[in-house]
């Protein structure tokens, strides 16, 4: 199986440790992962802001970059959702049947990290060790756009040393929402403030999620509040082993 | 009444003001939380809930697909049973039809059943211009009307008010329009309802004409259906001599059987009840029983525009249950007025631009962006309207409507972003620049995130929209792809490829 890592533009620029963690984790699980260097972005920022024409060349680059891989793994539920559910719309917009055909070929091969681990590799215990109090924020797109269900939670439960904490109103949006965080900044912050409060109340030291974008918003608020809680991507906890912790 | 949605500011401005209203925040969090729990409980009781949702969506889709034929069937059935059918292209035409009927009967007041369509067309204001007072008889609509206020929720128009505020409105305003509130009125819900009952009883007994909407219009039998909780609707539908019903053309269901699905979906989704207390159904005129003159005004008002939109047309499945409002984290915090329309919340964010068209006014254009796209609305919708999908679609309509004009900052930024992401070399250069900036800015700020990562300081506009309330990590010096190269994996990958070739 030829496996590609789609690190996402956001992680490439802002959260490289998440990409490294995915590589470390897959190495440990015996998966030979490649990083197609011509990858850039899934085009979600353009699509979700309404700029479909601007998304077309980005999707074109995407399908070219990931051509020929059996599985494309990404540590972002939101970007996985974009590839799975929005690339078709962008391709139709282009009016180019060749792009439509390529998209319908590429889109089904996208896997969010927890989907790949649980469904394809069929592992839940990835041999991780993380002796900290952790709460999980199930991101909206992981829950309601691609439907990962309790896969992240099952993966976390198998981590040795971890102390999992329940999060109140866990399934409620943190308020990030892409450009929503800027266009409706006050509403976004009002939502995030409640999320941060529930995280603090959970008693966790670390809040984990499958999307660094949501975590940047949540973490930004927690940091401003000096709440004493840090954010980590699921991949980084799953990549942790005893020597490092 | 002077309150109006006309001239409301775009959503971000209206939302900002609403967020400052602590009483509103308190009232909404309590009320939406309560209804959410009730709904979840009664929906959870039904094993076949998903099948019901699918059936509801399918019936509506099939109906909308042949709406032209079904509407003619409905018209014929209604006429056969003695109703007068009127067709209205827009709000003004619909209001004029109702006002004309009122004038023919020389009435100066009408009683009203709670109806979204009549608020949508601005009927009360139009009737007032003709010297006809329209009395709202639904408790929440009455509170809104007496308070010279605007509805903020589809099902519970006064959801933004608590009982202390309602008591104050009743004591202050009831006397000026009819029977005053009792001197010793407390804010006990039963007492408030009692005061409304006495006040409204006089209106019911006096009125010669009633105006209603309809939750459903059954084409095969010419039956209109009103689903309600308080019985005020039943009074309006049975006591007056003349009944006028204003019905959006999408309210149609072809057969009586179809009601089976919707009368299960609607109460559970809206009030969180297994069944609503009152379901009134009437087919034209029944001699000697109820109104002896029955009119039905079938209103388009943008619905055929919405129907022409391949992605957006699913919004016409809406049965106005409000489930999407009650689960929406944005609505819960800003309330209904921020949406500047009788249709607030997630459904309003798509329905208003679909009905009114985009590209004409900043308020309507702002609505598709009034969402974090969290998807809670789609999950709750009893007729499976994929609201996030339509929101994103409407955003593209807004953007497209402005193409050809001089591009604003956002459009320019998106074009630049597109060019950057279309070419991996440009993206690699941007990453280098971002790393250099991050390293410098992180050092200059001297700030750190919990866990120790370097953070940026406060940034100028537009980045201040982020940093005003949230800290922000500094972009790291080494992006992922540079690490990948440095780790030697890129070379191994290339060798591997050559080896296997």
Flag low-confidence runs of chain B.
none
Q: Give the H and E element order of chain A.
A: EHHEHHEHHHEHEHHEHHEHEH
Tell me the major beta sheet of chain B.
Answer: 6 strands, parallel
The proportion of residues forming helix of chain B, as a percent range, comes to 40-55%
Radius of gyration of chain A: 18 Å
Largest interface: A-B, 78 and 73 residues
| Number of distinct helices of chain A | 14
The strands making up the biggest β-sheet of chain B line up spatially as 1-10-7-4-2-3
Oligomer: heterodimer
| Rounded Rg of chain B | 27 Å
Low-pLDDT windows of residues of chain A: none
Report the biggest beta sheet of chain A as strand number plus sense, adding barrel if it closes. 4 strands, parallel
Globular, elongated, flat, extended or rod-shaped: what is the shape of chain B?
elongated
**Major sheet strand order of chain A:** 2-1-3-4
Distance between the termini of chain B: 79 Å
Name the average pLDDT of chain B. Answer: 96
Q: Structural class of chain A, please? A: alpha/beta
Summarize the structure.
The complex is a heterodimer of chains A (245) and B (501). With 245 residues, chain A is an alpha/beta fold. Chain A is built from 14 helices and 8 strands.
Give an account of the 3D structure.
Chain A contains 14 helices and 8 strands. Chain A is α/β, with parallel strands linked by helices and 245 residues long. In chain A, the strands form 2 sheets. Chain A has a 4-stranded parallel sheet, with helices on both faces. In chain A, helix 13 links the parallel strand 7 (206-209) and strand 8. In chain A, helix 6 packs antiparallel against helix 7. Chain A is globular. The model of chain A has no long low-confidence stretch (mean pLDDT 97). By secondary structure, chain B is α/β, with parallel strands linked by helices. Chain B is built from 24 helices and 12 strands. Chain B has helices spanning 11-19, 22-44, 49-65, 67-80, 91-104, 116-120, 123-129, 139-146, 163-177, 189-206, 232-238, 259-270, 303-308, 323-327, 329-334, 345-356, 362-366, 376-380, 387-402, 409-422, 424-445, 464-467, 480-486, 489-500; strands at residues 84-88, 109-112, 133-136, 209-212, 216-218, 223-228, 242-248, 252-253, 278-283, 293-299, 447-448, 454-455. In chain B, the strands form 3 sheets. Chain B has a 6-stranded parallel sheet, with helices on both faces. In chain B, strands 8-5-6-9 form a 4-stranded mixed sheet. Chain B has a two-stranded antiparallel sheet with strand order 11-12. In chain B, strand 5 and strand 6 (223-228) form a beta hairpin. In chain B, helix 16 (345-356) packs parallel to helix 19 and helix 20 (409-422) crosses helix 21. Chain B is elongated, with a radius of gyration of 27 Å. Chain B starts with 10 loop residues before the first helix and ends with a helix. The chains are: A alpha/beta (245), B alpha/beta (501). Chains A and B meet through helix 1, helix 2, helix 3, helix 4 and helix 9 of A and helix 1, helix 15, helix 18, helix 19 and helix 20 of B.
